[in-house]
Write a structure and sequence with these properties.
Blueprint: E1 26-30, E2 42-46, H1 51-60, E3 64-69
C-alpha cells in the first residue's frame, strides 16, 4: 500500500495532561509494580503548570519514581 514519508523533524514534546498542548519541560518517570518490572519506566511529559498535578496523581497510586528535565530523558525511558 502507501508508504509513509520519512520523518524530517522531531515530534513535538507536549504535556501529557488532558487537553494541554503546552510544551513539556519535565519527564515524570513511573511504573505500576503490578504490571511492570522494577526497572521498567514509563514517562509522562509535563509542562510547568501541570507537573505538580501529574506527580500527585502518580504518587497517590504509588507509581511515581522520579522527575527529570526533558533533556535528561534517554532512549531507555518510556
Amino acid at each position: 500500500m502507501g508508504r509513509r514519508p520519512p520523518v524530517t523533524e522531531a515530534p513535538e514534546i507536549v504535556c501529557s495532561a488532558k487537553g494541554c498542548r503546552e510544551g513539556a519541560s519535565w519527564g515524570l518517570r513511573w511504573n505500576n509494580p503490578r504490571l511492570h518490572t522494577a526497572d521498567r519506566r514509563k514517562v509522562w511529559l509535563a509542562c510547568d503548570d501541570h507537573r505538580g498535578h501529574l506527580e500527585h496523581f502518580l504518587e497517590a497510586r504509588g507509581f511515581h519514581r522520579d522527575t527529570v528535565a526533558v533533556g535528561d530523558l534517554d532512549a531507555a525511558d518510556g
